[in-house]
Amino acid sequence: MIENLERGLVNIKKVIYDLTESRWAEQKYQAAEELLDLPHILEDVRLALAPQIIASNAKISADIKVSEISFVRRKLRSVLYNLLSNAIKYTPADRTPDIKIHSYQEDGYVVIRITDNGIGMDQQDLATIFEKFKRVTSSADGSGVGLYLVNSIVKNAGGKILVKSKLGHGSEFTVYLASN
Fold it and tell me: Is 51 left (phi over 0), alpha (psi -120 to 50) or beta?
């Protein structure tokens, strides 16, 4: 009985050690914030979305008043990629996507506002768009995790995201990221 107890304690000690080591390894490889150039990140996203931009003939314009931001590169890229991809994807086929990106400083935040002329959403849909696996429409490919991911990244970084939309007239996503 004592041998079984000792074996159990050794196993528990090993599990605790493994959990501690995996946590340290996870933190070791977490991406760190760095000073980023917003126009460069936007250009990277445009290149990644080039096939969709070309196929839809999308017009993307930018008015960048604040170009430097301290953030994790892949996370900022993911936020912008998802918002721009959705703006293209959810524009009716009979309409050319017209996407405007603005950045500016407001109340201690770097603000990135993306407006489009897509299908828009009604008030009922706006209440649930950041839920995991929630999709407003099935008219375009998607899994329902893009806006959930965007919201999670922004909130975990101490920011917020606001949405305005009118069904049939497009949407406006305003991302507030803490300014350092």
Answer: alpha
C-alpha closest to that of 114 among 63, 76, 70 = 63
Q: What single string gives the DSSP state of each residue in 95-128?
A: S--EEEEEEEEETTEEEEEEE--S----HHHHTT
Rounded to an integer, what distance in angstroms lies between the CA atom of residue 87 and that of residue 120? 10
d(CA 135, CA 130): 9
CATH architecture type of domain 37-178 = 2-Layer Sandwich (3.30)
Q: Where are the domains of the chain?
A: 1-30, 37-178
pLDDT tens, the chain, 180 aa long: 888 888 888 888 777 767 666 655 555 556 788 899 999 999 999 999 999 999 999 999 999 999 999 999 999 999 999 999 999 998 888 999 999 999 999 999 999 999 999 988 888 777 767 776 565 665 555 556 678 888 988 998 899 999 999 988 999 999 999 876
